[in-house]
Design goal:
The protein has 539 residues and is of the alpha+beta class. It folds into three domains: 99 residues, no CATH class; 154 residues, no CATH class; 160 residues, Transferase(Phosphotransferase), domain 1 (Orthogonal Bundle). Helices cover 39% and strands 22% of the residues. The protein contains 16 helices and 25 strands. An eight-stranded antiparallel β-sheet has the order 8-16-17-12-11-10-7-9. Strands 1, 2, 3, 4, 5 and 6 form a six-stranded antiparallel β-sheet that branches. It has a four-stranded mixed β-sheet with strand order 15-21-20-18. α1 packs parallel to α2 and α1 crosses α4. The chain is globular.
Length: 539
């Protein structure tokens, strides 16, 4: 395999992602982005840059970005853009608020603001000596993935193939494939990985569990007085848990295939998904099942069933993946915690094939894009808005949390929502008495923060990317797609009694876009990420 052939797309993808971040989070908020068709111009650290783009807010690049030097346009490299970005990010006195968008998303949770605001602003003002290395590591990871994919066989299951399609990662993240830990490529979904789970046995008196765990017990036998606990092999290598009478290694288990999140796998023989803890930073977050998230998954599974059932009466395409139980060892409650999740194949009707929305954002080419888009928005967006307005439920309907059920003709006929970690309940609309305070707090958003999360995940992260793929360079088609979405949402607003958040959205209020670049520069937790405003295509 030609190393240069692999390195070129890795460099291009890294450059494009960082440039998008600069447009959205650095130059844009300072008023230093200008349309100059067919280009977009921006100024970063005093240097004028340009790129041909299409796709509206998705900022799809049509050619290599350039910088103006001595009166002529020169190719821009990743190293040059990193240097310019570092210069501007080191002077963020006018861009230092990570807490949110006052007047757009409302005031964020005040306790969270007080708890992190000063520290986040301090970190933004400090130099970040890790940033350039993280960008380079992400680029190198993309190159390694491309090389591994060229040697590997993709899964025959079309849903799993879609889960493993995200070679370049988040298009608006400066380090979309940053991944700590050795041997990561062995477990990378993008490299078409598959591996046997490790099976442990936990003594009954050293066990913590809740809910329906039939799927775990079916993975294999356990010694008397013990219960079976599957583990991710990478997880075990990192944790090195003490083995003995309380925790016994039973050896290899059934084959597992990693999904797009890396730490959630599908076990084909058992037809179940398992969400593991991995003490590894992937993009922004260290991926671990906190103890309150284990309990929260089971609690939300019970609470959401009747609410989603009611919404499904109005939106029959809606489906979801329950997380009915968790199991862990008391000595490693978070490190070895595993959450059981239903398989998407059990959620889809016969003849319907699930596909990851993020994969559709890379390659969706229906014969009638407007009709396909109308069906897509009806299936995906309308139930998310309904759940928020009618029931105070916040779904994180971003591209990696939504599976779209396609019929035999490739039309979107169902939407399957997953990953209860991101689901929140609007404060004041749910009785959480009786829950542990930490569990209740982790399940709750105030109304403004919850609506901002809904709008970012659904419209900014998700629908803008799908629309850009469908429209390609056809700006008129892109406008027609958003007019169709507006018509659907306006009809829904009337049916729901014209709720204020939806009225503001349709009136053209700016959309909140998550500030991934700033939070990575600040070396802050992902929950500290605020928003920057972008233009609303529904206006």
């Amino acid at each position: 395999m030609d190393v240069l052939a692999i390195g070129a797309p890795a460099e291009e993808a890294t450059l494009a992602a960082l440039l998008r971040c600069c447009v959205r989070e650095v130059a844009g908020p300072r008023g230093l982005v200008w349309p100059a068709p067919p280009y977009v111009l921006l100024r970063v650290a005093g240097t004028l840059l340009r790129a041909r783009t299409h796709g509206g807010a998705a900022l799809r690049l049509d050619g290599p970005p350039e910088r103006l030097e001595s009166g002529s346009w020169q190719p821009l490299t990743v190293a040059e853009l990193v240097r310019l970005t570092e210069t501007d990010l080191s002077d963020l006195s006018d861009l230092s608020d990570l807490s949110g968008l006052s007047g757009l998303a409302g005031r964020q949770d005040e306790q969270a603001r007080r708890g992190r605001g000063a520290g986040a602003e301090r970190l933004l003002a400090e130099p970040n000596g890790e940033f350039a290395g993280q960008v380079a590591a992400s680029r190198d990871a993309i190159a390694a993935i491309l090389a591994a994919r060229a040697r590997a066989e993709p899964p025959a299951d079309p849903w799993l193939a879609s889960e493993q399609a995200l070679v370049y990662g988040h298009p608006f993240h400066p380090t979309p494939k940053a991944r700590d830990g050795a041997d990561w490529l062995r477990y990378a979904p993008e490299a078409h990985a598959a591996f046997p789970l490790r099976l442990l046995a936990v003594r009954d008196d050293a066990l913590a569990e809740e809910g329906d765990l039939t799927a775990l017990d079916a993975l294999g036998p356990a010694p008397a007085g013990h219960r079976l606990l599957p583990a991710h092999p990478w997880q075990l290598a990192l944790l090195r848990p003490a083995l003995g009478s309380e925790l016994v290694d039973l050896g290899p288990g059934p084959l597992a295939v990693p999904t797009s999140s890396v730490r959630t796998v599908y076990v084909p023989d058992a037809e179940v998904c398992l969400k593991f803890s991995l003490d590894v930073r992937i993009t922004n977050c260290v991926r671990k099942n906190a103890w309150y998230e284990l309990a929260g998954a089971v609690e939300l599974t019970s609470r959401l069933a009747p609410l989603i059932g009611e919404v499904a009466a109005r939106h029959p395409a809606v489906r979801w993946l329950p997380e009915p139980g968790y199991r862990t060892a008391l000595g490693q409650r978070e490190g070895l915690g595993v959450i059981v999740r239903a398989s998407p194949w059990t959620a889809c009707d016969p003849g319907v094939t699930p596909a990851l929305a993020a994969a559709l954002a890379l390659d969706a080419a229906p014969a009638d894009p407007l009709a396909w888009w109308t069906a897509y928005v009806s299936a995906v967006a309308l139930p998310v808005v309904d759940l928020y307005v009618s029931h105070g439920v916040v779904l994180e309907a971003h591209l990696q949390n939504v599976l779209v059920g396609l019929d035999a003709a490739g039309r979107p006929v169902q939407a399957i929502f997953r990953d209860l970690e991101g689901v929140k309940l609007v404060a004041g609309r749910h009785d959480l008495d009786g829950l542990h305070p930490a569990v209740a707090a982790a399940l709750t958003h105030d109304p403004a923060r919850g609506w901002a999360r809904v709008v970012y995940c659904l419209f900014v992260n998700h629908l803008t990317e799908i629309a850009a793929t469908l429209a390609g360079p056809d700006d008129e088609l892109l406008r027609a797609l958003w007019r169709a979405a507006r018509d659907l949402l306006a009809r829904q607003a009337a049916e729901l009694g014209q709720p204020l958040p939806l009225r503001d959205l349709l009136a053209g209020a700016p959309l909140p876009a998550k500030a991934n670049l700033r939070v990575r520069w600040a070396r802050a937790a992902d929950r500290s990420a605020g928003y920057v405003p972008i233009a609303n295509p529904l206006a």
